[in-house]
Amino acid sequence: MFRIALNHLEDLQQNLAGELFFDDTIRRLYATDASVYRQLPLAVAYPRNTDDLKKLLSFAKTHQTSLIPRTAGTSLAGQVVGTGIVVDVSKYFTSILEVNEKEHWVRLQPGVIRNDLNAFLKSYNLFFGPETATQTRAMVGGMVGNNSCGSNSIVYGSTREHVLEVKGLLAN
Predict the structure, then answer these.
(1) In the structure, how many helices (H) and strands (E) does the chain have?
(2) Handedness of CA 34, 73, 10, 42 (dihedral sign)
(3) Region for residue 157 given its phi and psi (left: phi exceeds 0; alpha: psi -120 to 50; beta: otherwise)
(4) Could you tell me which residues are beta bridge partners of residue 86?
(5) How does pLDDT run across 26-60, given as a tens digit for each residue?
(6) More confident residue, 149 or 108
(7) Contact present, 72 and 94 (Cβ < 8 Å)
(8) Burial of 165 per CB tally in 10 Å (0-12, 13-18, 19+)
């Protein structure tokens, strides 16, 4: 059925604080984004914390599969579809962690929706500029991954122009 034995996925499922699905229904839901591309993933994970992300990275390395980071799935070029494990951070990684009003920056998790961020920042007289067409659904992690910009990029720039740093995890 899969390139990876079902018992390996079941073991991973039992070891995550979050959820892991490998049933046909969820896999079909994640086989597409807003593009025309379609690929059934091996599984879909909703990691609950950084330890889950580390376990997913280790699993992918050990079993020679890929991880496909995903937030809202609004990309138009198939960036978040593939045959590996989709890692959807939109459920648990949704916190705004810190705002520095003086230096005009915010630290947040990748599942924060762009418009929710701006609603939060309004009281600080701050604004996250990249203006995607899907700003009511687009999440900052996806915007970073795609370098989103939108129709007003001449005014607000692209996402990369607003990112000071990214804390990430690597397989090693």
Answers:
(1) 6, 6
(2) positive
(3) left
(4) 44, 68
(5) 999 999 988 899 999 999 999 999 999 999 999 99
(6) 108
(7) no
(8) exposed
Distance CA 38, CA 16 (A): 27
In the predicted structure, residue 135 carries a pLDDT above the cut 90: no
> What's the angle, vertex CA 40, arms to CA 38 and CA 45, rounded to 5?
120
Q: Are 138 and 132 in contact (CB under 8 A)?
A: yes
Report H helices in 33-133. 50-62, 114-121
The residue type of 5 is: A
Tell me the pLDDT of the chain averaged across its residues.
92
Q: Which of 91, 136, 140, 135 lies closest to 112, judged by CA?
A: 140
Identify the three-state secondary structure at position 95. Answer: coil
Q: Provide the pLDDT confidence category of residue 1 given band limits of 50, 70 and 90.
A: very low
